[in-house]
Design a protein that fits this description.
- By secondary structure, the chain is an alpha/beta fold.
- The chain has one domain: Rossmann fold, CATH 3.40.50.
- It has nine helices and five strands; from the N terminus they run H-H-E-H-H-H-E-H-H-E-H-E-E-H.
- The protein has a five-stranded parallel β-sheet with strand order 2-1-3-4-5, with helices on both faces.
- The relative contact order is 0.20.
Length: 211
């Protein structure tokens, strides 16, 4: 399926997201370029957006809408690495797209919160994980979450592109983004309901292009 076809399907199912079509397209291009340049995706958010962060990792690190068999080179190396398990691994494993939820590491988050401060749990991880060609996906229904704002500021400081998945106004985070997807809603639940089909579409667009 082409990028345009995926976008059209998204708008067909959610007509009110027409206003987001161009920013979704730009976000997919930014993500594809990052992965092709051996970058990774860092994702953060609070509450329901934290769950979205974990959800997105699940769609990227293994197959989502299509099969991703390992490359012939990986298959060969696996088989050479173990006569007992190599062939099975070559059959079962899938190619992944590197993505990290900054919400997922409880011990690290508690250490940062205790030793530095809760507002800095994402910024510290961006500084630690972030490298050239990476992208930060900042998810916030209000656009004003302090810990997400600090993550965006840190990302910009070390040269990482920022995509915002936000509510209608975009809040303070909007100004820190290279691309800001602002859905047409302000109520938290409604914003989150729009976010899911958007990030599903983004994951499919990336997967279809790279695999």
């Amino acid at each position: 399926m082409t990028q345009e076809a995926i976008l059209e399907k998204l708008i067909e199912r959610y007509p009110s997201l027409l206003s987001c079509k161009e920013t979704v397209r730009k976000s997919s291009q930014l993500l594809i370029q990052s992965f092709e340049d051996e970058g990774k995706l860092l994702i953060c958010g609070n509450g329901g957006s934290a769950s979205d962060s974990d959800h997105i990792v699940g769609e990227l690190m293994k197959s989502f809408s299509k099969k991703r068999p390992v490359t012939s080179e990986v298959k060969k190396r696996l088989q050479e690495s173990s006569e007992e398990r190599g062939a099975l691994l070559a059959t079962k494993l899938e190619m992944g797209l590197p993505a990290i939820s900054l919400n997922a590491h409880g011990g690290l988050i508690s250490a940062i919160s205790n030793d530095i401060g809760g507002d800095f749990v994402f910024a510290q991880q961006v500084l630690g994980y972030g490298k050239k060609n990476d992208v930060l996906l900042a998810i916030s229904t209000s656009g004003n979450s302090k810990n997400v704002i600090d993550a965006c500021i840190t990302a910009k400081a070390i040269g990482i592109k920022v995509i915002g998945l936000l509510g209608e106004t975009g809040g303070k985070i909007k100004e820190l983004c290279d691309v800001a997807i602002c859905v047409p809603a302000t109520n938290t639940a409604s914003v989150q309901e729009y976010h899911l089909p958007i990030y599903h579409a983004l994951c499919i667009m990336v997967e279809e292009t790279i695999f």
